[in-house]
């Protein structure tokens, strides 16, 4: 009897598997299947601040979406791994994600890592979201890569215009980090500076993870530039700001998003006050939707999110919007639907700001000019999106 019961159980299992393969599984059973998403982030190494924030933002979004019933009735399942801020490790993890047949990949955040790993997701035709800002990421014709941040070629012209017109500066010194992220930003900024009549009088390279900024700051001071533009990773940004105050720098300091992240502000302390930056996302934006995200994130993780947390959070909702538009779990169709897609907060609050994704995978939305005051970002000006699609 026991053998017969066992045999019937085995046959039933085979039949169930066959039905699932043939698409004949009952709807209730199909709804239990999860949408697998690989989260490839920098949880250690030089990118730990950025990657951890992005990971936390992703997991908060997944928690909220799953609590509301998932996507098309299916829950999201995340597979989180640490790239160690190493492009080689990132590539290996992307290969594993492909082997695991995930529906989408979120990350890495470091430009150098995603430039290597996205070849694997492209080969497998898997939608891949990144917070990386290097312009080259979306200049290679990869139809499966999508940004959650502005590209450097979008952000730097706004910055250079503000320095030249808003600050009335004639000369600028540049301190940048010598990696794909830093070099790409430096190149885009120098080009934009020239277009706005700004002369770069000091072009200073620093290394990822650099601890001592005495020499770069001294070079910037000796250049007698009207303004200093700093474009480094979060931890290095805090060190640079402390050294600038130590050496008595009193002229305007301006940068992009990484210069005024909450982690930088916390680490730099008083040295961060007065620093300005152009940011694509900020939890201090005067928006009820963004303020709601800020409160939920802080309640969940007991600290204030930076822009990376926002990028991680919005990436899940961008994916959700595309899946719901397609109406089925088809990776290629979802990637195609993302191109040219406009997502409104009114219909998808999780994107936090109305956003349009162009044919390259770059995005367009409002952005902000902020200044650090009293240990937090204060929005000075809201800059409009470059263009809107109906």
Could you explain the architecture of this structure?
The chain contains 13 helices and 15 strands. It has helices at 2-21, 27-30, 48-67, 87-99, 111-123, 152-166, 180-195, 214-223, 234-246, 262-268, 288-301, 307-326, 331-338, and strands at residues 35-41, 76-82, 104-106, 128-130, 145-147, 171-177, 199-206, 227-231, 253-255, 276-279, 342-343, 355-357, 363-364, 367-373, 376-383. The strands form three sheets. A seven-stranded mixed sheet has the order 7-6-8-9-10-14-15, sandwiched between helices. The chain has a five-stranded parallel sheet with strand order 2-1-3-4-5, with helices on both faces. It has a three-stranded antiparallel sheet with strand order 11-12-13, with no helix packed on it. The N and C termini lie far apart (68 Å). Residues 1-32 have low confidence and may be disordered.
Briefly summarize what is shown.
With 390 residues, the chain is an alpha/beta fold. The chain has 13 helices and 15 strands.
Task: Supply database-style keywords.
390 residues; alpha/beta; 7-stranded mixed beta sheet; 5-stranded parallel beta sheet
Largest sheet: 7 strands, mixed
Q: Any idea what the radius of gyration is? A: 23 Å
Query: What's the helical proportion of residues?
Result: 40-55%
Shape: globular
Which sequence of SSEs, written as H and E, runs from N to C?
Answer: HHEHEHEHEEHEHEHEHEHEHHHEEEEE
* Distance separating the two termini: 68 Å
Strand order across the biggest sheet? 7-6-8-9-10-14-15
How would you classify the helix and strand content by structural class?
A: alpha/beta
Note the quaternary state here: single chain
């Amino acid at each position: 009897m026991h053998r017969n019961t066992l045999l019937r159980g085995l046959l039933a299992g085979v039949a169930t598997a066959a039905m699932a393969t043939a698409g004949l599984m009952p709807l209730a059973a199909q709804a239990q299947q999860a949408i697998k998403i690989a989260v490839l982030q920098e949880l250690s190494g030089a990118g730990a601040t950025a990657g951890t924030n992005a990971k936390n933002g992703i997991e908060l979004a997944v928690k909220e979406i799953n609590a509301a019933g998932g996507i098309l009735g299916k829950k999201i399942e995340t597979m989180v791994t640490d790239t160690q801020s190493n492009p080689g490790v990132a590539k290996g993890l992307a290969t594993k994600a492909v082997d695991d047949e995930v529906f989408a990949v979120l990350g890495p955040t470091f430009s150098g890592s995603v430039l290597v790993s996205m070849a694997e997701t492209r080969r497998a035709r898997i939608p891949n979201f990144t917070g990386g800002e290097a312009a080259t990421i979306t200049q290679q014709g990869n139809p499966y890569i999508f940004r959650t941040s502005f590209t450097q070629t979008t952000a730097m012209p706004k910055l250079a215009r503000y320095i030249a017109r808003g600050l009335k500066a004639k000369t600028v010194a540049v301190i940048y980090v010598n990696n794909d992220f830093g070099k790409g930003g430096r190149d885009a900024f120098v080009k934009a500076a020239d277009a706005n009549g700004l002369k770069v009088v000091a072009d200073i390279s620093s290394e990822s993870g650099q601890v001592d900024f005495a020499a770069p700051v001294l070079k910037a001071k000796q250049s007698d530039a009207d303004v200093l533009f700093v474009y480094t990773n979060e931890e290095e940004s805090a060190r640079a700001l402390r050294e600038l105050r130590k050496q008595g720098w009193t002229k305007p300091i301006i940068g992009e998003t990484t210069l005024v992240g909450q982690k930088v502000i916390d680490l730099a302390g008083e040295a961060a006050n007065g620093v300005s930056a152009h940011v694509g996302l900020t939890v201090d934006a005067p928006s009820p939707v963004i303020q709601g995200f800020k409160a939920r994130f802080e309640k969940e993780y007991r600290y204030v999110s930076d822009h990376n947390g926002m990028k991680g959070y919005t990436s899940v909702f961008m994916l959700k919007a595309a899946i719901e538009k397609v109406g089925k779990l088809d990776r290629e169709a979802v990637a195609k639907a993302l191109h040219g897609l406009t997502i409104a907060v009114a219909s998808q609050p999780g994107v936090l700001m109305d956003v349009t994704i162009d044919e390259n995978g770059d995005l367009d939305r409002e952005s902000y000019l902020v200044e650090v005051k009293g240990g937090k970002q204060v929005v000075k000006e809201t800059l409009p999106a470059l263009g809107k699609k109906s």
